[in-house]
Design goal:
Largest sheet: 8 strands, parallel, barrel
CATH topology: TIM Barrel
Number of strands: 9
Distance between the termini: 41 Å
Strand content: 5-15%
Number of helices: 15
Bound molecules: (3S,4R)-3-hydroxy-2-oxopiperidin-4-yl beta-D-xylopyranoside
Radius of gyration: 22 Å
Structural class: alpha/beta
Shape: globular
Amino acid sequence: MVVTFLVFLLSLGGCTENKTDDIKKPEQARSLKRAFADDFYVGAAINARLISEEDSLALQLLRKEFNSISPENDMKWENIHPAPDSFYFDIADRYAALAEDNNMFALGHTLVWHSQLADYMNTVSDTATMNVYLENHISTIVQRYKGKIDAWDVVNEALNEDGTLRESVFFKVLGEKYIAKAFKLAAQSDSDAKLLYNDYNLCVPEKRGGAVRLVKTLQNEGIKIDGVGMQGHWGLKEPSLAEIENSILAYSDLGVKVSITELDITVLPNPWDLEGAEVGQNFENEDRMNPYPDVLPDSVQLQLAQRYHDIFQLFVKHSDKIDRVTFWGINDGNSWLNNWPIRGRTNYPLLFDRKFHPKEAYDSILSLISEN
Ligand code: XIL
Protein backbone atom coordinates (compact mmCIF):
# COMPACT_ATOMS: atom_id res chain seq x y z
CA MET A 1 0.00 0.00 0.00
CA VAL A 2 2.70 2.46 1.17
CA VAL A 3 4.89 1.38 -1.70
CA THR A 4 2.12 1.96 -4.24
CA PHE A 5 1.53 5.42 -2.83
CA LEU A 6 5.24 6.21 -2.99
CA VAL A 7 5.39 5.06 -6.60
CA PHE A 8 2.40 7.30 -7.34
CA LEU A 9 4.11 10.29 -5.69
CA LEU A 10 7.32 9.60 -7.56
CA SER A 11 5.46 9.40 -10.82
CA LEU A 12 3.89 12.80 -10.14
CA GLY A 13 7.28 14.27 -9.26
CA GLY A 14 8.65 12.91 -12.48
CA CYS A 15 6.04 14.68 -14.59
CA THR A 16 7.51 16.43 -17.57
CA GLU A 17 6.40 19.99 -18.19
CA ASN A 18 4.17 18.72 -20.97
CA LYS A 19 2.38 16.31 -18.75
CA THR A 20 1.67 19.01 -16.19
CA ASP A 21 0.23 21.14 -18.97
CA ASP A 22 -1.91 18.23 -20.04
CA ILE A 23 -3.34 17.88 -16.57
CA LYS A 24 -4.10 21.58 -16.27
CA LYS A 25 -5.76 22.14 -19.61
CA PRO A 26 -6.19 19.10 -21.80
CA GLU A 27 -7.86 20.16 -25.06
CA GLN A 28 -10.78 17.74 -24.63
CA ALA A 29 -11.61 19.20 -21.20
CA ARG A 30 -12.36 22.63 -22.64
CA SER A 31 -16.11 22.83 -22.85
CA LEU A 32 -18.92 25.25 -22.34
CA LYS A 33 -20.67 23.16 -19.72
CA ARG A 34 -17.49 22.85 -17.72
CA ALA A 35 -16.57 26.51 -18.05
CA PHE A 36 -19.94 27.73 -16.79
CA ALA A 37 -20.65 24.90 -14.36
CA ASP A 38 -20.83 27.32 -11.43
CA ASP A 39 -22.98 29.83 -13.33
CA PHE A 40 -25.79 28.23 -15.33
CA TYR A 41 -26.69 25.33 -17.59
CA VAL A 42 -25.48 25.72 -21.15
CA GLY A 43 -27.94 24.21 -23.59
CA ALA A 44 -28.65 23.62 -27.25
CA ALA A 45 -31.81 23.05 -29.24
CA ILE A 46 -31.67 19.72 -31.04
CA ASN A 47 -33.56 18.53 -34.12
CA ALA A 48 -35.13 15.16 -34.95
CA ARG A 49 -32.02 13.86 -36.73
CA LEU A 50 -29.92 14.44 -33.66
CA ILE A 51 -32.54 13.06 -31.28
CA SER A 52 -32.70 9.91 -33.42
CA GLU A 53 -28.89 9.71 -33.18
CA GLU A 54 -28.50 9.96 -36.97
CA ASP A 55 -26.16 12.92 -36.75
CA SER A 56 -23.22 11.44 -34.89
CA LEU A 57 -20.95 14.50 -35.12
CA ALA A 58 -23.62 16.75 -33.68
CA LEU A 59 -24.32 14.23 -30.94
CA GLN A 60 -20.63 14.02 -30.06
CA LEU A 61 -20.41 17.79 -29.82
CA LEU A 62 -23.63 17.97 -27.80
CA ARG A 63 -22.29 15.50 -25.23
CA LYS A 64 -18.98 17.30 -24.95
CA GLU A 65 -20.21 20.89 -24.71
CA PHE A 66 -23.75 21.04 -23.36
CA ASN A 67 -25.63 19.94 -20.25
CA SER A 68 -29.13 20.99 -21.26
CA ILE A 69 -31.31 20.35 -24.31
CA SER A 70 -34.41 21.83 -25.93
CA PRO A 71 -36.43 20.06 -28.64
CA GLU A 72 -36.31 22.34 -31.68
CA ASN A 73 -39.65 21.17 -33.13
CA ASP A 74 -40.68 17.76 -31.86
CA MET A 75 -42.80 18.72 -28.89
CA LYS A 76 -44.72 21.44 -30.70
CA TRP A 77 -48.47 20.93 -30.94
CA GLU A 78 -48.59 20.03 -34.65
CA ASN A 79 -46.00 17.32 -34.14
CA ILE A 80 -46.88 15.81 -30.78
CA HIS A 81 -50.69 16.17 -30.93
CA PRO A 82 -51.58 16.25 -34.65
CA ALA A 83 -55.26 15.26 -34.27
CA PRO A 84 -57.63 15.66 -31.32
CA ASP A 85 -57.41 11.97 -30.41
CA SER A 86 -53.90 11.16 -31.49
CA PHE A 87 -50.56 11.91 -29.99
CA TYR A 88 -47.21 11.15 -31.59
CA PHE A 89 -44.64 10.54 -28.89
CA ASP A 90 -41.89 8.56 -30.63
CA ILE A 91 -39.37 11.36 -31.04
CA ALA A 92 -40.29 13.14 -27.82
CA ASP A 93 -39.74 9.86 -25.94
CA ARG A 94 -36.32 9.50 -27.50
CA TYR A 95 -35.59 13.11 -26.59
CA ALA A 96 -36.44 12.48 -22.93
CA ALA A 97 -34.34 9.30 -22.96
CA LEU A 98 -31.38 11.14 -24.47
CA ALA A 99 -31.54 13.69 -21.65
CA GLU A 100 -31.75 10.96 -19.03
CA ASP A 101 -28.91 8.85 -20.51
CA ASN A 102 -26.62 11.86 -20.67
CA ASN A 103 -27.68 13.48 -17.44
CA MET A 104 -28.85 16.65 -19.16
CA PHE A 105 -31.42 19.21 -18.06
CA ALA A 106 -34.41 18.75 -20.39
CA LEU A 107 -36.78 21.51 -21.49
CA GLY A 108 -40.26 20.85 -22.85
CA HIS A 109 -40.94 23.29 -25.70
CA THR A 110 -43.75 24.24 -25.85
CA LEU A 111 -47.26 23.56 -24.55
CA VAL A 112 -49.31 26.55 -25.73
CA TRP A 113 -48.26 28.55 -28.79
CA HIS A 114 -50.08 30.07 -31.77
CA SER A 115 -47.44 28.89 -34.26
CA GLN A 116 -46.86 25.30 -35.38
CA LEU A 117 -50.25 24.53 -33.95
CA ALA A 118 -52.23 21.55 -35.30
CA ASP A 119 -54.77 22.65 -37.92
CA TYR A 120 -57.79 21.48 -35.94
CA MET A 121 -56.91 23.91 -33.17
CA ASN A 122 -57.20 26.93 -35.44
CA THR A 123 -60.87 26.26 -36.07
CA VAL A 124 -61.94 25.91 -32.44
CA SER A 125 -64.46 28.62 -31.61
CA ASP A 126 -66.30 27.56 -28.46
CA THR A 127 -65.11 27.61 -24.88
CA ALA A 128 -66.05 24.05 -24.01
CA THR A 129 -64.10 22.49 -26.88
CA MET A 130 -61.09 24.72 -26.25
CA ASN A 131 -61.07 23.79 -22.56
CA VAL A 132 -61.23 20.07 -23.34
CA TYR A 133 -58.47 20.28 -25.94
CA LEU A 134 -56.23 22.36 -23.73
CA GLU A 135 -56.72 20.11 -20.70
CA ASN A 136 -56.15 16.97 -22.71
CA HIS A 137 -53.04 18.41 -24.35
CA ILE A 138 -51.31 19.72 -21.27
CA SER A 139 -52.25 16.94 -18.84
CA THR A 140 -51.41 14.10 -21.22
CA ILE A 141 -48.03 15.48 -22.19
CA VAL A 142 -46.85 16.80 -18.85
CA GLN A 143 -47.92 13.65 -17.00
CA ARG A 144 -46.17 11.43 -19.53
CA TYR A 145 -42.88 13.22 -18.98
CA LYS A 146 -43.23 13.78 -15.25
CA GLY A 147 -39.81 13.48 -13.68
CA LYS A 148 -38.15 13.45 -17.12
CA ILE A 149 -38.76 16.94 -18.45
CA ASP A 150 -37.28 19.40 -15.95
CA ALA A 151 -38.91 22.60 -17.18
CA TRP A 152 -41.70 23.59 -19.55
CA ASP A 153 -42.18 26.59 -21.77
CA VAL A 154 -45.84 26.54 -20.74
CA VAL A 155 -46.90 29.51 -22.84
CA ASN A 156 -44.85 30.82 -25.74
CA GLU A 157 -45.15 34.25 -27.38
CA ALA A 158 -48.45 35.43 -25.90
CA LEU A 159 -47.50 39.10 -26.19
CA ASN A 160 -47.67 41.73 -28.90
CA GLU A 161 -44.82 44.20 -29.28
CA ASP A 162 -46.72 46.85 -27.33
CA GLY A 163 -47.12 44.53 -24.37
CA THR A 164 -50.79 43.72 -24.95
CA LEU A 165 -51.92 40.13 -25.38
CA ARG A 166 -51.78 38.59 -28.84
CA GLU A 167 -55.08 37.64 -30.47
CA SER A 168 -54.21 33.95 -30.71
CA VAL A 169 -56.96 31.37 -31.03
CA PHE A 170 -56.52 30.66 -27.30
CA PHE A 171 -57.07 34.32 -26.47
CA LYS A 172 -60.00 34.70 -28.85
CA VAL A 173 -61.84 31.76 -27.35
CA LEU A 174 -60.90 31.90 -23.66
CA GLY A 175 -59.71 35.46 -23.14
CA GLU A 176 -56.60 36.17 -21.10
CA LYS A 177 -57.39 33.49 -18.55
CA TYR A 178 -56.06 30.83 -20.95
CA ILE A 179 -52.60 31.67 -19.62
CA ALA A 180 -53.48 31.03 -15.98
CA LYS A 181 -55.30 27.88 -17.03
CA ALA A 182 -52.28 26.54 -18.88
CA PHE A 183 -49.93 27.16 -15.96
CA LYS A 184 -52.39 25.61 -13.51
CA LEU A 185 -52.81 22.47 -15.61
CA ALA A 186 -49.06 22.09 -15.98
CA ALA A 187 -48.49 22.50 -12.21
CA GLN A 188 -51.22 19.94 -11.43
CA SER A 189 -49.64 17.44 -13.81
CA ASP A 190 -46.10 17.74 -12.47
CA SER A 191 -45.62 19.81 -9.34
CA ASP A 192 -41.82 19.54 -9.54
CA ALA A 193 -41.30 20.80 -13.07
CA LYS A 194 -40.20 24.41 -13.50
CA LEU A 195 -42.79 26.44 -15.38
CA LEU A 196 -41.74 29.25 -17.72
CA TYR A 197 -43.22 32.01 -19.82
CA ASN A 198 -41.13 32.31 -23.01
CA ASP A 199 -41.05 35.04 -25.68
CA TYR A 200 -38.87 37.08 -28.07
CA ASN A 201 -38.08 40.78 -27.79
CA LEU A 202 -38.43 40.59 -24.02
CA CYS A 203 -35.71 43.25 -23.75
CA VAL A 204 -37.83 45.87 -25.51
CA PRO A 205 -39.29 48.11 -22.80
CA GLU A 206 -42.97 48.00 -23.90
CA LYS A 207 -43.00 44.25 -24.34
CA ARG A 208 -41.03 43.80 -21.14
CA GLY A 209 -43.80 45.75 -19.39
CA GLY A 210 -46.32 43.26 -20.76
CA ALA A 211 -44.27 40.30 -19.56
CA VAL A 212 -43.91 41.81 -16.11
CA ARG A 213 -47.70 42.28 -15.95
CA LEU A 214 -48.25 38.73 -17.13
CA VAL A 215 -46.03 37.29 -14.40
CA LYS A 216 -47.55 39.53 -11.72
CA THR A 217 -51.09 38.54 -12.74
CA LEU A 218 -50.24 34.87 -12.29
CA GLN A 219 -48.49 35.51 -8.99
CA ASN A 220 -51.43 37.56 -7.66
CA GLU A 221 -53.73 34.65 -8.47
CA GLY A 222 -51.43 32.28 -6.60
CA ILE A 223 -50.44 30.41 -9.75
CA LYS A 224 -47.02 28.83 -9.98
CA ILE A 225 -44.60 30.44 -12.43
CA ASP A 226 -40.89 29.84 -11.95
CA GLY A 227 -39.22 31.66 -14.75
CA VAL A 228 -39.15 33.92 -17.74
CA GLY A 229 -37.43 32.70 -20.90
CA MET A 230 -35.90 35.45 -23.02
CA GLN A 231 -35.50 33.82 -26.42
CA GLY A 232 -32.39 35.75 -27.45
CA HIS A 233 -32.74 35.92 -31.24
CA TRP A 234 -30.46 38.90 -31.34
CA GLY A 235 -28.28 40.93 -33.69
CA LEU A 236 -24.70 42.23 -33.58
CA LYS A 237 -25.82 45.55 -32.12
CA GLU A 238 -29.38 45.10 -30.89
CA PRO A 239 -30.61 44.80 -28.23
CA SER A 240 -28.18 46.92 -26.27
CA LEU A 241 -26.38 45.42 -23.30
CA ALA A 242 -28.17 47.96 -21.13
CA GLU A 243 -31.60 46.71 -22.24
CA ILE A 244 -30.58 43.09 -21.75
CA GLU A 245 -29.37 43.92 -18.26
CA ASN A 246 -32.48 45.95 -17.40
CA SER A 247 -34.60 43.01 -18.45
CA ILE A 248 -32.68 40.42 -16.45
CA LEU A 249 -33.11 42.69 -13.42
CA ALA A 250 -36.81 43.40 -14.09
CA TYR A 251 -37.75 39.71 -14.26
CA SER A 252 -35.52 38.70 -11.42
CA ASP A 253 -37.07 41.44 -9.24
CA LEU A 254 -40.37 39.57 -9.58
CA GLY A 255 -38.82 36.63 -7.77
CA VAL A 256 -38.59 34.40 -10.85
CA LYS A 257 -35.50 33.05 -12.57
CA VAL A 258 -34.36 34.16 -15.98
CA SER A 259 -33.33 31.80 -18.76
CA ILE A 260 -31.88 32.76 -22.11
CA THR A 261 -33.69 30.13 -24.10
CA GLU A 262 -33.01 30.47 -27.83
CA LEU A 263 -29.77 32.33 -28.28
CA ASP A 264 -28.43 33.05 -31.76
CA ILE A 265 -26.90 36.19 -33.24
CA THR A 266 -27.66 36.94 -36.86
CA VAL A 267 -24.92 38.54 -38.93
CA LEU A 268 -27.18 39.11 -41.95
CA PRO A 269 -29.19 42.15 -43.02
CA ASN A 270 -32.64 42.45 -41.61
CA PRO A 271 -35.42 42.72 -44.23
CA TRP A 272 -37.39 45.93 -43.81
CA ASP A 273 -36.01 46.35 -40.33
CA LEU A 274 -38.06 43.45 -39.12
CA GLU A 275 -37.73 42.95 -35.42
CA GLY A 276 -38.33 39.85 -33.37
CA ALA A 277 -38.84 36.24 -34.28
CA GLU A 278 -42.41 35.79 -35.49
CA VAL A 279 -41.95 32.50 -37.34
CA GLY A 280 -44.91 33.16 -39.66
CA GLN A 281 -43.05 35.94 -41.46
CA ASN A 282 -41.07 35.18 -44.63
CA PHE A 283 -39.40 37.36 -47.23
CA GLU A 284 -37.94 36.91 -50.74
CA ASN A 285 -34.23 36.18 -51.01
CA GLU A 286 -31.93 38.40 -53.08
CA ASP A 287 -28.14 38.78 -53.27
CA ARG A 288 -27.88 41.88 -51.13
CA MET A 289 -29.71 40.06 -48.36
CA ASN A 290 -27.23 37.15 -48.51
CA PRO A 291 -23.82 38.86 -48.50
CA TYR A 292 -21.67 35.94 -47.25
CA PRO A 293 -22.78 32.86 -49.23
CA ASP A 294 -19.31 31.23 -49.04
CA VAL A 295 -17.42 32.50 -46.05
CA LEU A 296 -17.85 34.98 -43.22
CA PRO A 297 -15.29 37.83 -43.50
CA ASP A 298 -12.81 38.03 -40.62
CA SER A 299 -14.06 41.45 -39.62
CA VAL A 300 -17.58 40.14 -39.05
CA GLN A 301 -16.28 37.00 -37.35
CA LEU A 302 -14.50 39.25 -34.85
CA GLN A 303 -17.57 41.41 -34.34
CA LEU A 304 -19.57 38.28 -33.59
CA ALA A 305 -16.91 37.09 -31.14
CA GLN A 306 -16.92 40.45 -29.37
CA ARG A 307 -20.71 40.47 -29.16
CA TYR A 308 -20.80 36.97 -27.65
CA HIS A 309 -18.04 37.95 -25.25
CA ASP A 310 -19.97 41.00 -24.08
CA ILE A 311 -23.30 39.27 -23.57
CA PHE A 312 -21.73 36.34 -21.74
CA GLN A 313 -19.85 38.76 -19.54
CA LEU A 314 -23.25 40.14 -18.58
CA PHE A 315 -24.71 36.67 -18.05
CA VAL A 316 -21.84 35.74 -15.76
CA LYS A 317 -22.26 38.99 -13.83
CA HIS A 318 -25.91 38.02 -13.22
CA SER A 319 -25.44 34.28 -12.95
CA ASP A 320 -27.27 34.27 -9.60
CA LYS A 321 -30.40 35.28 -11.54
CA ILE A 322 -29.90 33.08 -14.60
CA ASP A 323 -30.67 29.35 -14.63
CA ARG A 324 -29.77 28.45 -18.18
CA VAL A 325 -28.37 29.81 -21.42
CA THR A 326 -29.47 27.77 -24.43
CA PHE A 327 -28.35 28.19 -28.05
CA TRP A 328 -30.94 27.63 -30.77
CA GLY A 329 -29.04 24.92 -32.62
CA ILE A 330 -25.67 23.18 -32.50
CA ASN A 331 -23.79 24.61 -35.46
CA ASP A 332 -24.22 27.27 -38.13
CA GLY A 333 -25.30 24.71 -40.72
CA ASN A 334 -28.38 23.58 -38.84
CA SER A 335 -29.54 26.98 -37.58
CA TRP A 336 -33.10 27.98 -38.47
CA LEU A 337 -31.67 31.42 -39.37
CA ASN A 338 -30.48 30.04 -42.72
CA ASN A 339 -34.16 29.92 -43.66
CA TRP A 340 -35.79 32.60 -41.58
CA PRO A 341 -36.94 35.26 -42.21
CA ILE A 342 -35.65 34.65 -45.74
CA ARG A 343 -35.24 31.15 -47.16
CA GLY A 344 -31.92 29.85 -48.44
CA ARG A 345 -29.40 32.29 -46.92
CA THR A 346 -26.08 31.45 -45.32
CA ASN A 347 -25.99 32.67 -41.75
CA TYR A 348 -23.33 32.26 -39.03
CA PRO A 349 -25.14 32.79 -35.73
CA LEU A 350 -23.73 30.11 -33.40
CA LEU A 351 -20.46 29.12 -31.74
CA PHE A 352 -19.60 26.20 -34.03
CA ASP A 353 -19.11 26.35 -37.81
CA ARG A 354 -20.57 24.03 -40.41
CA LYS A 355 -17.80 21.50 -39.75
CA PHE A 356 -18.50 21.59 -36.01
CA HIS A 357 -15.29 23.50 -35.33
CA PRO A 358 -15.36 26.13 -32.58
CA LYS A 359 -15.36 29.68 -33.92
CA GLU A 360 -13.66 32.78 -32.50
CA ALA A 361 -16.88 33.44 -30.60
CA TYR A 362 -16.40 30.17 -28.70
CA ASP A 363 -12.89 31.20 -27.60
CA SER A 364 -14.08 34.67 -26.68
CA ILE A 365 -16.68 33.20 -24.35
CA LEU A 366 -14.32 30.73 -22.75
CA SER A 367 -11.73 33.45 -22.25
CA LEU A 368 -14.14 35.07 -19.80
CA ILE A 369 -13.60 32.28 -17.36
CA SER A 370 -9.84 32.72 -17.32
CA GLU A 371 -10.32 36.50 -17.16
CA ASN A 372 -12.34 36.20 -13.96
C1 XIL B 1 -38.21 27.44 -35.07
C2 XIL B 1 -37.43 26.21 -35.51
O1 XIL B 1 -36.07 26.40 -35.22
C3 XIL B 1 -37.63 25.96 -36.99
O2 XIL B 1 -37.04 24.71 -37.37
C4 XIL B 1 -39.11 25.94 -37.33
O3 XIL B 1 -39.29 25.82 -38.72
C5 XIL B 1 -39.80 27.21 -36.84
O4 XIL B 1 -39.56 27.35 -35.44
N1 XIL B 1 -39.29 30.90 -31.46
C6 XIL B 1 -39.52 29.66 -30.92
C7 XIL B 1 -38.98 28.46 -31.61
O5 XIL B 1 -40.07 29.55 -29.81
O6 XIL B 1 -39.78 27.32 -31.42
C8 XIL B 1 -38.76 28.71 -33.08
O7 XIL B 1 -38.13 27.56 -33.65
C9 XIL B 1 -37.95 29.97 -33.29
C10 XIL B 1 -38.66 31.17 -32.73
